[in-house]
């Protein structure tokens, strides 16, 4: 974090809530994130911690009854939360694109692949149908789909899962976005196809210098593709650092728990170490630390107050933990 890198997207104090009969569900609870040009930021955590809702908040696609209630999302010094829906429609798919988890629910089942890519290009780049169709075929070729002219005439059900995911990438990259959000893009794919997709995203990122937000629960994928990692728990960022630092020296007890649950290839390991308990409901009111009921090192203060996300060592990493704060007094900057 000490190098000067060009910021693309900066999120501060983002809060997304759901008002229901149960009460207020705090799905995204005051997060801070920065995406830089040419870099990949990984967001990791268990299911239900708010990763996907963070991405939907960035694009202002939060489903009802959800609502963004606080914060700023700055893209090139413009706050996206001040944009109208008409303005956001121009930004989505053009400046910021997203690869969703399941392509079959994102692709129109009765429209050909080529037409779906072409439609995006015509909408955002103003090309005529002929030019847009030509570029759609070029995009299919770019993402490694064989016989792109033939595939462009097919509908989604005629393609394999791996090919449909490549189509989603083609649509996402058709307008040369500055920021690409990849939400679990390889979850349903076999290991070989997963490796191909990750390699493809990295290659295209290097060519265009775009920033990537990679949302996943797979720490193996994080180690392979991410430059920075933000660990999310119950709607909060609880640790953030370079990928190398996170795997070499995890600081928050939750991060340590995630890493300890991974199989170790080069060590004698009789069984995996599982964390006790489960992630709390977003409707739970917390006085102290949200992780306290599962934490193996919790102290009295952890039950009484909510820890802040504190920056250490001139911006090298951030940790939200009272125990770590007491042991390492070099705090420089505090976030809520």
CATH superfamily of the largest domain: P-loop containing nucleotide triphosphate hydrolases
* CATH first level of the largest domain: Alpha Beta
**Uncertain spans, ≥5 residues at pLDDT below 50?**
none
Compute the number of structural domains.
2
- Provide mean pLDDT, rounded: 90
What is the radius of gyration?
21 Å
Our measurement of the CA-to-CA distance between the termini, rounded to an integer number of angstroms, reads 20 Å
CATH architecture of the largest domain: 3-Layer(aba) Sandwich
In spatial order, strands of the major sheet run 6-7-8-3-9-10-12-11-13
Please describe the biggest sheet, giving its number of strands, its sense, and whether it closes into a barrel.
9 strands, mixed
The total count of helices amounts to 13
Estimate what percentage of residues fall within beta strands.
Answer: 25-35%
User: What is the total tally of β strands?
Assistant: 13
Instruction: Sketch the topology as an H/E string, one letter per element.
Output: EEEHEEHEHHHHHEHEHEEHHHEEHE
- State the helical fraction: 25-40%
- The structure class reads alpha/beta
